[in-house]
Design brief:
By secondary structure, the chain is mainly alpha-helical. Helix content is 74%, strand content 6%. The chain folds into two domains: 42 residues, no CATH class; 100 residues.
């Protein structure tokens, strides 16, 4: 009897911890087609939409920052000598193309699914870091 009581208390504690940690909030199931052995996870839709909105706001702010850095390069190009002006302009044009690609990628966010969310964030983050580094390199190269 004592062992049964201990078992019940233990199960109650595990269940309480599980609910607090969200263990029971996401439902994992096997791929219904059975190919690839992937696992899909059911995600709280409201949280997912909130995460997407927050990410978009942060990404928009980062893109605005890139616009400002590219504009600074363009301003420096206007004030530079002819040979340096051409290099500034080339760098600014390359960065502009990459930034536009980032904006296009951000449009994918509208149709991004929970299953592809982490991949999208990683891909966008890596592309942004590449453009940001290029802007910083260009600015330091022409000082």
């Amino acid at each position: 009897m004592k062992a049964l009581l201990v078992l019940i208390v233990l199960l109650a504690v595990v269940a309480g911890v599980g609910f607090n940690q969200g263990w029971f909030g996401a439902e994992a199931k096997k791929d219904p087609i059975g190919k690839g052995g992937s696992v899909t996870v059911k995600v709280d839709g409201d949280k997912f939409e909130k995460d997407k909105a927050e990410f978009k706001a942060a990404a928009d702010a980062k893109l605005k920052d890139l616009d400002e850095e590219i504009d600074k390069l363009k301003d420096k190009a206007k004030k530079a000598s002819a040979d340096v002006k051409e290099k500034y302009s080339e760098e600014a044009a390359k960065l502009e193309v990459k930034k536009d690609a980032l904006k296009k990628d951000l449009e994918e966010l509208k149709t991004s699914t929970a299953e592809k969310w982490d991949d999208f964030k990683k891909r966008f983050g890596a592309a942004y870091d590449d453009v940001k580094k290029g802007a910083g390199d260009a600015a330091s190269r022409f000082k």
